[in-house]
């Protein structure tokens, strides 16, 4: 892979993230949704190929504004999170001259999009509304992170802020991982698992400052694809079964085995199952963290372990148990293909990370990134 | 005999041995996911069995090559470059075919295929038939990765696959609550203990500059505290996977799974995988007397504990599980004390014996009739001694290990609840928390 | 701890007495005897009994409605059957007019066939959204229904059973389940207390009883489970004061705040919380002979230990969830169930409106009163009543077909044997022998088979050559008065002695190896020594199960052949020494003659003896199958019938017995020879006994019969394997035989045979009535000749034996297949043999009683259709005398049909009297051979006439 191909790969991944939820959501695939997704993709691609930070973040801002405008109609997004994240995106676009502000704005943008603590109250609003909306929102992270890697990470200040961000990220990952253990409904669990990945993203943002850009991008890709996919599966389950409480075993696997398998696969790749992007991302992130802070990496390891346990426990409560009778069926055909495609991407990056990571470093060097 | 480039053959064969089973699983999974009907049992099993057979044949071939009958044995280090290389950081794609690896690979391939053949009949018509074989393929790859990995990262991937497979097989009959609870307990134990592996791996990378297993040889030059730390962290992980004290509580619970997988995991591969890790990191163990002593103490105490439990356990699979654990503890001590070759032989013989015993466990009644167990009543402990009763109770109750761990976890769960409550307050404060119905 | 209130104890006594009845009555699994799972409800009419019993045990009384519905869809149940069953339902006024112009009957039919209750609202809405919509047929009506239901009232919520114990209430309130910890603890304690020889060391002081042993254990400082903390003090006090169990129970009830009047139910519920273990205590307490561990067993002590643990676990769980502990307060805290969702109600209304042909406007304008009436009608036609109707219809369909076939067959002329039969075969009545009997008869019209209860009148305690103690080989209701030993022949006595020593040594080594391998050093040594051998053995046994077993057997036979033996069946001197159990060894001449004569008379074989008569008992051998013994002969008390067949042949071949027989009118020609044999129903092998004694003059006849058996067992195997999905269809008979042999030898085979899975009916009558009918291995065939039984004395004996055995088998299969988890023992695969007593799932849990999935999966759960060739008057008279038969018949636990021997009229006993029953009048299909009929089908096949081996070929051709 040549460095020139990097934007194309990122665009492809972004496309996967943007279109996957469209086909899984409960509403029929409407014209408006497709158009919106296409426009979002166009803006994302524009952002990916932009040569300056102003334009790159500007495009993201436009994308977010567009989402906000069509909130409640084309998308299930509530308005407030769109407005807030648009503001951060605009700030990131306009503060290119002031690295400190620029970094803060970009990090806040990423935190808002990915639902990291403490911005998760905004994400919680999105998830409260509909998990599929969160999946759509997360897809923007790839583009935002790519812009960050090119225009913000190479700065001197990002280098200085790295170790703080890493420590912060580790804590932000641990807290939701702990709360994930005691959630009482499926959305609460989804909120926690996304927030935990948000924490990892913050840590990765920090690590990127020290040149671990591949780790940062892989973490983002895992977040977007695995958590996006998981969000879609959460939506699919709720669609079929109504509100899902984690009180006792639901036994839903009997009626929807493919949906259960997809849920488990996405969740597992999120918590670092070998053979998926999550494994490489975790591994890379750990090494990057270790250099910054041993305690940070320890925290992250514990967070990942707790989250893995919570994930299996949640899966067990939703799907396992004595057979539940339901009229609702398994994943429909388009949904199944989306699952295959999205998970295929995760596996591809998991077994061949060099496809993305190796040219990325080369590519970013063109933007003045410090080689690791 | 014309010259054969054994190195080249080995280079191609090894990835096939490792990846073919999971590829077969993925293929079957894909078939199911893509179509609305399930394939026939026959088709699915065929695909898996062919993959496992090829894996076994190639593994045996590598073993034969290594004996040198086809000329000079191929090199034991097969380097595929790096899975990922970024500056100083690389995930090396290295496989190691020394005798330890080959023997373990052969053992894994053989037992997996044996169990697959057994299960073709055993699992027939069972709900979850496909799940069983798909997971088995994933497990086979995990076991081969562990056996042949030349770098800790790859080893860890296999290690995790075995762990996931083990947990999902324990919860195989998930319509009842008990298997699911047991599965979670095993998985939680694995994950917590694997934190040790991850830290040790990252640590080793930092101090040795590489995560290849051969690089561990360099640990002899490390300062004692570093090799001790790394060694103990690895030991923690081994204790989880091999159910050593105080993490033995999940092992009897693992008997919830179908008998062939109990055989494969807890009689055969999974419990012994921990020991294999010990064999792989033996340079570190040798470098630190503290780790040696710790390993020996853990191993011996587990062996004594398990032997006592096995004597009092009245159910077939539970007794077998502890009998296995007893030997695993013993082997752990052997390795810690440096008898690695003996340990390797012991592992192989023991795995074969236990798999066979597990596979025949449901025959207990038939055997009892045949060999007249009833004719010789069990000895009753007619005792007035408080000590004897306590020892008996400790064995019967398995030291109440699960309860003890739960008591430690209780405050943690209180913390989690408090944190969650706080979080909910904060969200409500900012106007969230109003869920819309789906 | 000192509340020895007599009122209390009465309640507890009553509860324990009741618990004996309700708890599963299954003994140690090594000898599996089929019995009616709800035996203690047998005094009630069938439907009421099973609905009450199932409710008590939290189980299903009928197949799941979905299964009935599938049967309806597939045509297994026909309209006419459903109509009849609906008419039969005892309820007031089926024509009652309901709102929307529905009649009550219409509504009930709709509820049955439309399958519209219990739809989850979310799933329903999803289906409507994402299609194909289930309401697409009439959207305006759907909207009207939705709108109407939204205004209320809603259908009644499903009634959940009231909480019986603290645990039920705690769970309903969302507290932690206290039973998890208690179950774990009790499983460990019970299994080591009851252990029959699996562990090396058992519970200390178990000879002092369960309560004391447990109390002593905890009094010594053993820790109680974390969630039962506090129980150790109670146990310590019990150990010191030696408190009797009932007082312990009373104290615990007091502490839990259970009011006096609820105590009985509370204690029963406590016993039923872990039915398997409690049932084993109850069984072994009342049948101490089955307990091989030397410990006194008492259900009360089990309940006492449980109550102590329960109390503390419940208190703790309640405390954690901030709930009261007192039963009175706690049971009031249970939250109301959630109301039915509007969409579900609307869907129900929509379907009913469709059935009624109502318009949207009509639906919209329904008043609350009429809507409520509709909901009420659906509620009173509850699942139990629906199951009842479905089951009656399900049975009716089969009954019509099978009785129709018999009627057609009867219209053809009965076959009478003018010439001497080529060979005669006496089989067990077992329905599994139907196919091999048919396969024999198909070969020649002069091969004649008989069916007799498989112990052949030989009620004995049998001690085989290497058995350790006598085992009763007869129906469970009979207590044998004689013992029979298998003994080596004189010339091989010394070899026998040597072999016994060798055998004992070998077994000692095997036992030692099994127990050494669990020890520290032994395990290490054996791993190194035996590991490689085990690997090779595993490969051979998995890859070539049949061959490897053959090789092993041959090797054993070569190395140490079994000595030839004879049965000591006759006791010549009345003063001969008694056995160790104090029973006479063998029969006296008179006793032998009586038994043989009784047996021959009962099957109507009192003349026309052929030259060779083979008597076949049956048994079943399989590996890795804890339920192996369930496949053995029910009439032999869950053992193999080979010894009985052998003994019978041995006795009847004796000249002195024959002379005595002649004196009472049974003249067996001197050229007739009986051969005893054992048919293995798992691998379809036939093993003959005592062929050394076969007179040379009979050799040819025997060879002839043997050849026929060889063919027959192959065809029988062929007929069996079509039911196994793993055997390809269209095998050759030889391949089929190989397949079943491999099955029986396979370690991984959870279905060595399907056992009694196919049982459905029983015929008591002349074989000529059913000869030539393809009954698909579903019929117990009891040979009985009404023409030789003017006083019905024989019939009475036959029914008294066959009725309970047949009903026991049929009902055990019925219950295990309608609720596999509660009545049956679930799938076999996670079973773990415990204490040599039974199986439990996984590592800690209840003992599982009943039959596993792999034994019942193709079963059609119906009551046994018992067709007897006798007049209703005769049957009523017998039922009047035989209490057990009366209970089964009058309460309709079997469907009794009287087939009049002279007129052929068929009447079913139903609702207290015999009524003519409906039969299919369609002409019987006829085929040339059995295989032509069942050929390539894996399903049940309907009865057909098989012409091969029938003399009435031209006649039958003409009639069809």
Task: Name some characteristics of this structure.
heterotrimer, A: 372 residues, mainly alpha, 15 helices, globular, C: 960 residues, alpha/beta, six-stranded mixed beta sheet, five-stranded mixed beta sheet, 23 strands, 47% helix
The strand order across the widest sheet of chain C is: 14-12-18-19-20-21
- Rg for CA atoms of chain C: 31 Å
Shape category of chain A: globular
In which range does the helix fraction of chain C lie? Answer: 40-55%
| Ends apart, CA distance between termini of chain C | 80 Å
Task: State the major sheet of chain C.
Answer: 6 strands, mixed
Most extensive interface between two protein chains, with residue counts: B-C, 96 and 89 residues
Helix content, binned percent of chain A: over 70%
The assigned structural class of chain C equals alpha/beta
Estimate what percentage of residues of chain A fall within beta strands.
Answer: under 5%
Overall pLDDT level of chain A: 85
Structural class of chain A: mainly alpha
- Quaternary state of this entry equals heterotrimer
Walk me through what this model shows.
Chain A is an all-alpha fold and 372 residues long. Chain A has 15 helices and no strands. In chain A, helix 9 crosses helix 12. Chain A is globular. Chain B has a two-stranded antiparallel ribbon. In chain B, helix 5 packs antiparallel against helix 6 and helix 6 packs antiparallel against helix 7. The longest helix of chain B has 32 residues. Chain B is globular and about 75 Å long. Chain C is built from 36 helices and 23 strands. In chain C, the strands form six sheets. In chain C, strands 14-12-18-19-20-21 form a six-stranded mixed β-sheet. A five-stranded mixed β-sheet of chain C has the order 4-3-9-10-11. Chain C is globular, with a radius of gyration of 31 Å. Chains B and C meet through helix 3, helix 6, helix 11, helix 12 and helix 13 of B and helix 9, helix 10, helix 22, helix 23 and strand 15 of C.
């Amino acid at each position: 892979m040549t460095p020139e191909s990097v934007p194309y790969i990122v665009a492809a991944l972004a496309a996967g993230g943007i279109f996957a939820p469209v086909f899984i959501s409960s509403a029929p695939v409407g014209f408006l949704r497709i158009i919106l997704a296409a426009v979002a993709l166009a803006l994302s691609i524009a952002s990916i190929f932009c040569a300056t930070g102003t334009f790159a973040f500007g495009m993201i801002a436009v994308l977010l504004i567009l989402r906000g405008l069509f909130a409640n109609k084309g998308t299930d997004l509530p308005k407030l999170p769109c407005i807030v994240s648009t503001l951060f995106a605009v700030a990131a676009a306009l503060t290119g001259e002031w690295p400190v502000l620029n970094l803060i704005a970009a990090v806040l943008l990423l935190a808002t999009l990915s639902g990291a603590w403490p911005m998760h109250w905004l994400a919680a609003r999105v998830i409260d509304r509909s998990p599929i909306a969160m999946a759509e929102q997360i897809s923007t992270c790839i583009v935002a992170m790519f812009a960050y890697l090119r225009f913000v990470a190479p700065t001197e200040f990002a280098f200085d802020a790295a170790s703080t961000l890493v420590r912060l990220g580790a804590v932000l990952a641990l807290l939701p991982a702990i709360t994930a253990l005691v959630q009482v409904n499926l959305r609460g669990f989804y909120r926690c698992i996304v927030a935990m990945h948000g924490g990892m993203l913050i840590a990765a943002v920090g690590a990127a400052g020290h040149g671990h850009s591949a780790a940062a991008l892989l973490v983002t890709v895992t977040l977007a694809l695995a958590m996006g996919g998981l969000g879609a599966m959460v939506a699919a389950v709720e669609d079929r079964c109504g509100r899902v409480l984690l009180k006792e075993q639901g036994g839903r696997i009997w009626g929807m085995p493919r949906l259960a398998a997809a849920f488990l696969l996405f969740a597992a790749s999120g918590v670092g199952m070998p053979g998926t992007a999550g494994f490489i991302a975790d591994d890379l992130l750990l090494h990057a963290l270790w250099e910054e802070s041993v305690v940070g990496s320890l925290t992250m390891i514990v967070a990942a372990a707790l989250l893995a346990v919570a994930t299996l426990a949640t899966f067990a409560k939703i799907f396992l148990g004595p057979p539940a009778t339901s009229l609702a069926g398994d994943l429909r055909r388009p949904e199944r293909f989306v699952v295959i495609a999205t998970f295929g991407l995760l596996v591809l990056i998991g077994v061949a990370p060099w496809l993305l990571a190796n040219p990325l470093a080369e590519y970013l060097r063109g933007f003045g990134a410090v080689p690791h | 005999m014309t010259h054969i480039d054994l190195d080249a053959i080995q280079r191609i064969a090894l990835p096939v041995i490792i990846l073919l089973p999971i590829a077969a699983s993925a293929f079957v999974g894909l078939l199911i996911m893509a179509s609305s009907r399930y394939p026939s049992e026959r088709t699915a099993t065929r695909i898996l069995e062919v993959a496992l057979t090829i894996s076994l044949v190639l593994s045996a071939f590598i073993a034969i090559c290594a004996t040198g009958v086809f000329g000079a044995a191929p090199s034991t280090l097969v380097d595929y470059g790096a899975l990922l290389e970024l500056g100083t950081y690389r995930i090396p794609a290295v496989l190691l075919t020394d005798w330890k690896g080959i023997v373990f690979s052969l053992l894994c391939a053989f037992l997996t295929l044996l169990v697959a053949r057994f299960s073709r009949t055993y699992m027939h018509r069972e709900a979850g038939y496909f799940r069983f074989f798909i997971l088995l393929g994933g497990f086979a790859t995990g076991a081969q990765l562990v056996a042949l990995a030349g770098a800790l990262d790859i080893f860890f991937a296999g290690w995790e696959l075995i762990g996931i497979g083990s947990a999902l097989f324990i919860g195989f009959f998930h319509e009842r609550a008990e298997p699911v609870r047991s599965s979670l307990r095993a998985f939680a134990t694995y994950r917590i203990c694997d934190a040790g592996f991850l830290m040790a791996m990252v640590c080793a990378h930092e101090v040795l500059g590489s995560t290849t297993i051969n690089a561990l040889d360099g640990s002899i030059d490390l300062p004692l505290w570093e090799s001790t730390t790394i060694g103990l962290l690895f030991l923690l992980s081994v204790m989880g996977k091999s159910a050593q004290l105080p993490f033995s509580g999940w092992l009897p619970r693992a008997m919830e799974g179908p008998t062939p997988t109990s055989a494969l995991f807890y009689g055969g591969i999974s419990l012994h995988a921990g020991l294999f890790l010990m064999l792989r990191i033996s340079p570190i163990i040798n470098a630190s007397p503290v780790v040696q002593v710790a390993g020996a103490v853990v191993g011996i105490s587990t062996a004594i504990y398990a032997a006592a439990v096995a004597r009092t356990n009245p159910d077939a699979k539970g007794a077998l599980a502890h009998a296995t654990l007893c030997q695993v503890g013993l082997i752990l001590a052997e390795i810690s004390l440096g008898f690695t070759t003996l340990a390797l032989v012991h592992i192989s013989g023991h795995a074969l014996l236990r798999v066979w015993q597990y596979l025949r466990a449901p025959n207990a009644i038939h055997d009892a009739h045949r060999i007249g167990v009833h004719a010789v009543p069990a000895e009753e402990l007619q005792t007035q001694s408080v000590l004897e009763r306590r020892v008996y109770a400790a064995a019967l109750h398995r030291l109440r290990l699960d309860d003890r761990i739960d008591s430690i976890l209780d405050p943690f769960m209180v913390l989690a609840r408090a944190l969650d409550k706080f979080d909910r307050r904060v969200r409500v404060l900012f106007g969230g928390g109003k869920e819309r119905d789906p | 701890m000192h509340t020895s209130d007599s009122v209390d104890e009465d309640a507890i006594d009553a509860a324990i007495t009741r618990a004996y009845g309700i708890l599963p009555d299954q003994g140690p699994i090594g000898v599996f005897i089929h019995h009616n799972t709800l035996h203690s409800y047998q005094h009630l009419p069938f439907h009421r009994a099973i609905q009450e019993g199932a409710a008590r045990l939290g189980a299903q009384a009928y197949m799941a409605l979905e299964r009935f519905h599938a049967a309806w869809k597939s045509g297994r149940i026909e309209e006419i059957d459903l109509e009849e069953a609906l008419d039969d339902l005892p309820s007031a006024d089926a024509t009652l007019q309901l709102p929307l112009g529905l009649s009550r009957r219409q509504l009930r039919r709709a509820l049955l066939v439309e399958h519209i209750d219990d739809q989850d609202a979310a799933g329903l809405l999803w289906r409507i959204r994402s299609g194909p919509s289930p309401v697409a047929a009439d959207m305006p009506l759907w909207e009207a229904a939705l709108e109407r239901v939204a205004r209320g009232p809603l259908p009644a919520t499903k009634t959940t059973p009231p909480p019986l114990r603290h645990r039920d209430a705690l769970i309903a309130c969302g507290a932690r389940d206290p039973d998890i910890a208690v179950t774990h603890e009790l499983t460990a304690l019970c299994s080591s207390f009851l252990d029959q020889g699996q562990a090396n060391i058992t519970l200390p002081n178990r000879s002092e009883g369960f309560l004391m042993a447990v109390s002593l254990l905890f009094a010594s400082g053993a820790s109680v489970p974390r969630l039962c903390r506090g129980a150790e003090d109670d146990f310590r006090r019990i150990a010191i004061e030696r408190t009797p169990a009932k007082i312990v129970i009373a104290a615990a009830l007091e502490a839990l705040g259970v009011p006096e009047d609820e105590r009985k139910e509370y204690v029963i519920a406590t016993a039923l919380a872990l039915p398997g273990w409690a049932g084993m205590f109850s069984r072994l307490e009342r049948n101490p002979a089955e307990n091989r561990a030397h410990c006194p067993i008492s259900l009360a002590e089990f309940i006492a230990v449980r109550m102590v643990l329960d109390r503390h676990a419940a208190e703790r769980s309640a405390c954690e969830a901030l709930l009261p502990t007192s039963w009175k307060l706690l049971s009031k805290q249970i939250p109301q169930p959630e109301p039915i969702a509007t969409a579900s109600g609307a869907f129900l209304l929509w379907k009913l409106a469709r059935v009624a042909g109502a318009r949207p406007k009509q639906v919209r304008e329904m008043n609350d009163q009429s809507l409520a009436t509709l909901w009420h009608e659906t509620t009173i036609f509850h699942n139990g009543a629906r199951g009842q109707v479905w089951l009656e219809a399900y049975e009716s369909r089969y009954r019509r077909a099978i009785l129709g076939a018999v009627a057609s067959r009867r219209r053809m002329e009965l076959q009478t044997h003018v010439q001497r039969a080529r060979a005669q075969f006496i089989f067990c009545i077992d329905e599994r022998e139907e196919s091999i009997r048919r396969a024999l008869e198909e070969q020649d019209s002069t091969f004649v088979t008989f069916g007799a209860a498989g112990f052949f009148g030989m009620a004995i305690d049998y001690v085989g050559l290497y058995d350790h103690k006598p085992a009763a080989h007869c129906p469970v209701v009979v207590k044998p008065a004689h013992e029979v030993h298998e003994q080596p022949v004189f010339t091989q006595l010394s070899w026998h002695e040597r072999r016994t020593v060798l055998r004992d040594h070998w077994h000692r080594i095997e036992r030692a190896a099994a127990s050494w391998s669990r020890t520290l050093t032994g395990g290490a040594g054996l791993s190194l020594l035996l590991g490689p051998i085990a690997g090779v053995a595993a490969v051979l046994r998995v890859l070539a199960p049949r061959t490897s077993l053959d090789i092993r057997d041959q090797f054993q036979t070569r190395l140490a052949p079994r000595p030839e033996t004879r049965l000591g069946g006759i006791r010549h001197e009345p003063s001969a020494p008694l056995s160790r159990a104090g029973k006479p060894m063998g029969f006296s001449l008179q006793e032998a003659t009586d038994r043989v004569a009784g047996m021959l008379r009962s099957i109507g074989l009192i003349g026309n003896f052929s030259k060779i008569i083979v008597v076949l008992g049956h048994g079943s051998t399989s590996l890795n199958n804890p339920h192996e013994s369930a496949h053995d002969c029910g009439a032999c008390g869950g053992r193999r019938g080979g010894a009985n067949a052998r003994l019978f042949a041995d006795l009847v071949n004796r000249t002195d017995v024959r002379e005595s027989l002649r004196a009472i009118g049974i003249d067996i020609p001197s050229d007739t020879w009986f051969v005893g044999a054992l048919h293995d129903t798992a691998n379809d092998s036939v093993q003959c006994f005592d062929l050394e004694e076969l007179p040379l003059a009979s050799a040819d006849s025997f060879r002839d019969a043997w050849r026929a058996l060889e063919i027959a067992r192959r065809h029988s195997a062929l007929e069996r394997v079509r039911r196994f999905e793993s055997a390809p269809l269209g095998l050759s008979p030889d391949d089929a035989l190989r397949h079943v042999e491999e099955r029986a030898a396979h370690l991984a085979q959870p279905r060595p045979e399907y056992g009694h899975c196919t049982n459905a009916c029983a015929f008591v009558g002349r074989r000529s009535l059913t000869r030539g009918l393809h009954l698909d291995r579903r019929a117990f065939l009891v040979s009985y000749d009404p023409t030789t039984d003017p006083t019905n004395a024989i019939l009475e004996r036959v029914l008294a034996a066959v009725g309970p055995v047949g009903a026991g088998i049929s009902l055990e299969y019925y219950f295990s297949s309608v609720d596999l988890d509660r009545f049956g023992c679930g799938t076999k695969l996670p079973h773990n043999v415990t204490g040599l007593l039974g199986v439990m799932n996984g590592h800690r849990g209840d003992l599982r009683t009943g039959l596993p999935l792999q034994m019942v999966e193709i079963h059609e759960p119906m009551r046994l259709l018992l067709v007897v060739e006798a007049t209703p008057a005769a049957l009523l008279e017998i039922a009047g005398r035989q209490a057990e038969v009366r209970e089964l018949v009058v309460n309709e636990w079997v469907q009794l049909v009287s087939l009049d021997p002279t007129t052929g009229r068929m009447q079913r006993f139903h609702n207290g009297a015999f009524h003519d029953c409906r039969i299919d009048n369609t002409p019987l299909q006829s085929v040339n051979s059995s295989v032509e009929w069942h050929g390539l089908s894996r399903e049940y096949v309907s009865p057909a006439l098989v012409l091969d081996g029938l003399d009435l070929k031209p006649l039958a051709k003409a009639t069809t």
